[in-house]
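A common beginner's mistake is to predict each chain separately and then try to dock the pieces by hand. The better habit, illustrated here, is to supply every component at once so that their relative placement is modeled jointly.
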Amino acid sequence: MKTHHLWSFLVLIFLCPPAMAQEAPLSSASQACLACHTGLHPGIVHGWEQSRHSRVTPQQGQQVDGLASRVSARDIPEDLASVAVGCAECHTARADAHADSFAHNGFQVHSLVSPDDCALCHSTERKEYRQNIMSQARGNLMNNPVYMDLAQQIHGQPRFADGKLDFTLAQRTTEEESCFFCHGSRVQVQGTETRSTDMGPMDFPVLTGWPNQGVGRQNPDNSLGSCTACHSRHTFSLAEARKPSACKECHVGPDVPAYKVYTTSKHGNIAAAQSQNWDFQALPWTVGQDFTAPTCAACHISLTVSPNGSLIAQRTHRMNDRLPWRIFGLIYAHPHPREADTSIIRNRDDMPLPTDFANNPAREYLISKKTQAKRQETMQGICSQCHAQSWTDGHFQRLENTIQTSNQAVHTATQIMQTIWDQDLAQGLGDGHSPFDEHIEKTWSRIWLINANKIRFTSAMAGGGDYGVFAQGRYELSNNLAHMQDWLNQQTKKTD
Amino acid sequence: MKTHHLWSFLVLIFLCPPAMAQEAPLSSASQACLACHTGLHPGIVHGWEQSRHSRVTPQQGQQVDGLASRVSARDIPEDLASVAVGCAECHTARADAHADSFAHNGFQVHSLVSPDDCALCHSTERKEYRQNIMSQARGNLMNNPVYMDLAQQIHGQPRFADGKLDFTLAQRTTEEESCFFCHGSRVQVQGTETRSTDMGPMDFPVLTGWPNQGVGRQNPDNSLGSCTACHSRHTFSLAEARKPSACKECHVGPDVPAYKVYTTSKHGNIAAAQSQNWDFQALPWTVGQDFTAPTCAACHISLTVSPNGSLIAQRTHRMNDRLPWRIFGLIYAHPHPREADTSIIRNRDDMPLPTDFANNPAREYLISKKTQAKRQETMQGICSQCHAQSWTDGHFQRLENTIQTSNQAVHTATQIMQTIWDQDLAQGLGDGHSPFDEHIEKTWSRIWLINANKIRFTSAMAGGGDYGVFAQGRYELSNNLAHMQDWLNQQTKKTD
Amino acid sequence: MKTHHLWSFLVLIFLCPPAMAQEAPLSSASQACLACHTGLHPGIVHGWEQSRHSRVTPQQGQQVDGLASRVSARDIPEDLASVAVGCAECHTARADAHADSFAHNGFQVHSLVSPDDCALCHSTERKEYRQNIMSQARGNLMNNPVYMDLAQQIHGQPRFADGKLDFTLAQRTTEEESCFFCHGSRVQVQGTETRSTDMGPMDFPVLTGWPNQGVGRQNPDNSLGSCTACHSRHTFSLAEARKPSACKECHVGPDVPAYKVYTTSKHGNIAAAQSQNWDFQALPWTVGQDFTAPTCAACHISLTVSPNGSLIAQRTHRMNDRLPWRIFGLIYAHPHPREADTSIIRNRDDMPLPTDFANNPAREYLISKKTQAKRQETMQGICSQCHAQSWTDGHFQRLENTIQTSNQAVHTATQIMQTIWDQDLAQGLGDGHSPFDEHIEKTWSRIWLINANKIRFTSAMAGGGDYGVFAQGRYELSNNLAHMQDWLNQQTKKTD
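With all components supplied together, the output reads:
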């Protein structure tokens, strides 16, 4: 063998990704886009070049059968199916449906690619996601007056006049920086502006609510959601969505501390030590072989298989499919809501909450014990790949205990709060008062919004111990309860 | 050279780990285990396949001499020594000693592999660990009524009746989710259950206190500890235990924030930037060559050598061997306890605390100044690999200053607390009262349990600056002191 | 081709870094250093061996033209220019200027290498850094009596006497562990000590304020700063300084939570998922090609280019060159100060603060709107590599809104505080009182020092949402305001 042969050989081994053997022609429209935008926005173009979209046509994707399939739609229009998924394939798709479409060098272009655009190829994922509570994240907040009152007492604009503090309604822009950053903004076309560009003056739509990548974003085509929330921008990466950092953007704060708890758990420890050697691209995703400890996606979303090829869990973008309980308290942990739209829920007191203040669940809006059991079984099927039955049983028994005892602790806090309300030491519901605006009410709401949630997340994810106790969990819960008692004592003494 | 020769050659280079040259036969018992469990628990089996245990027999391990030795036992039974360390070698070892042994397909199997099982090959590590304060972590909490009172005021079940809050004793299950998650549960056989399996109905023991991987776990063979706390599950990885993530599981919360402080220090910064290029598997572990900044293990546990092969520090599983001070305050920082069992300590007031409330140490139970000096010298020997003497001296002088001044600050807090107790504004020790249950007492305990600890950890690990000031350190300590003063002022005014 | 040829070939491919082709002779002085210190401090020597300094002479560096240039000085002394940058080249440079120089085996050695030493080759960086506000970090705190009062109320030594708490001046050693750890200590020679070494007794200077790597360190040659703050120790790594972990050491605490916000942002998410494949060494640094999401350095410091080679942003060590606003509140967000020395600022009330308590800016000391616009344009040029104009516009409009509304919220807090001062319920400025020492004042200062900062950082870095709301941001701001109101109510009732 000659040296130059060896060279070619090594080059082939080291440089050629398998997909290069396939042909994925670029549409003339996308070629036109790239002619300018490669220079204007190199970061975007490079991201796309790294993506599978740039290398494989939908048609080629459809030919992959079984568990490795990525393209769920069967009836993809021929002109879309036969080319690489380039700029134009997404940003000019369904142009008529998009209020943000605008004429741009002979094309009708829209900036926001919506879940309904992605559904042209990924129809099953779209369908599932529509039933995912996250797709309704905007409306579930916006259309719930109790939650909106709580939100206003947090991100409203504070004002102090005549010795009294209150919070006025937040500006839209402020809301988009706070709650709706994750829950999703409403993106609307407000008008048109002319910008001078290298190609002369050009018109562009002026968007409000933009930028945003919230999971329940209301798009200009009236679809809900944002695939880029997890599959960032133009790499549309499976690997990225499988890593815990994807979930961190919205699930790291003290009210929903999933990421923090994960990194403190044994699972997170193993991931930190070993995940540089895992294959985050493999499809299907094989337990033990491709990864040796679950990430968020492995338990909640991903299609996983056993090394012998047998299915462990079907992929789902309806992410509560494997969740019996909703553990972030509103105000108590409760069985998961039946419908993605939770603003329809009414409890015994006719409030839009899954339980009442005394922890009676609004049963008809929540899943049944049977559904809970089925979901738990699906989840345990994943656990059992690495854990014996007694391990898994013990773990879930503790979770049940934690749900019950943390709910009891919140109930105790609510009893103190009710005593304070009953004695007119604070103004609760009624007469237009907010139950969330006074100092002592905020201590009460912290107990269920932060402390009880932290306790339950650590239990659910086996990340307990020190972190669940001292990092805003049990320790702070007991401190806050003691503060409520102290405050009540002082007020009562005063009126003596 | 023909192409197919090249292929074989490349395959040899890229795929063959050196150990494959060795023969490590699998016992017939372990073969029997794998026959079913490869399919049932692929994650477990894959972990083990990745481990050194699957590739090397104890006998082969014994042949490694000197600093690279991993097998410290000299008298390993022949049948164990001559085979790979498979399922049966651990899970059927010392069957008679295990209360959790059960008949399973002709074998006496136990789920929990204990430190005494591991000691069959790793006897020195077992011996050291038994003298490690961590092996007593369960008893040191359980048998100390002061600590258990503090624990109850945190994880006990709150109750509000007749206008008064109190915390009743926590359920066992709750304790196992909180303190004993890290300190270690007591694992006991409660009975037997029959499960239907693919092989028909089978009997399994029902365990309480399970799952758990706490460092002081009380095992069914009455041994204490859990090697898997740091060497996770079936990979038994040296590399994993050398990474800071291993310690994070128990040492990240605000009371013992070692991991957080590390990642904020210069050491942690260098590790974040460079550790993907370090060799975490090398034995011995060579400073500068295998790693360029210490991890937790490098300073506290690992056998480290100089590039010229000379010993820097001997490996120890008695992890306070290099620690002159115990810096988490109970309630003051103090010289390390002499014995692993700290529940035997009695201070001047006959309380089981290493100091009294005025910071007088219980000297006879704590190491001497001479031992402190010796331990500090060992630690400084590690520092000196990368730091000149004046650097190291300056660092340790600051640590001494921080121990002294943070103790003084806690003393100031205790003076305020004592004033409050003396004026009957809160009920301290005596008459069955808890000094940890009232709001103002919880502010006091936070000062030593959280704030002073954070200050000392940042000093000890050179992670100071912004983090040690503002992240629950000096800033919060001064705020909490000011709150105590304010509370006292208000109470005093009221009684005027 | 014979097998041994293949071997040589593979060895060449895998082991030879390109730089090995160059000749970089070691000076005889550095050879003398290494003779002993290779054995004494292997970690230091290994770090240096990994560095570019060990492989390339300044002269060779000067020959690199254009954007890949690392050596900005033109007039490097011949004896320095022609050898590798070894121990002696830095530690004996400018010996006469160094008060810490000492005679050591025939050389005049100094432990601290200062920015003025580095400037022998890196003159432009030194010049820029001198104008960087960070180089004045020590004096900007030390020479500002308002800040020093705030500092004392945090890290001063608490004392409780006659029922009253106060904070006495902190020890120098304590200050060096807290504020000056990041801001920079003053390193001084206090005397000389004789140590017994392997080479017999030797004299060394005794340094105070050492160790320290603060950004505004006052060095024994009277220069200000510490290059090792970001380019750690003896690898002097470009890659390390480009990673967010470098900034974390000083910018992670709740008062300046840049690192935490970054890791929660989409940028941080992409970095977490992909950065193991980025080239952190490339010079210039090409967007899309070398990295696909910005790190701290990419936006604030680095020289970045487009894949077509065109310049995006010039490197700067005057790190506010791209910053229109200073968003950490003192006590309000404000246009960046004109000068690096901020202790010269006087507001309308003649206080050394960039605004007064009512948010009137000290305009003549702050940059103009025009300069702000120019800096914002530079920053947006970086954004535009991956984002369309409407995205960038929307982002910066939100930032402006957040600056305005968070300033208003701080103003509301200040109105409550002023009411409390006016009613003599707390002692503010005047008569030697501190506005930062009482409990309620600390609640007020927390609002601008922690909460408003967190809100603005999340806005500036698009890391908003859950984290900016619940992690010490809007949620805590509203809680703290409610607490101020509650405290005021209670005090007022009491005096009724």
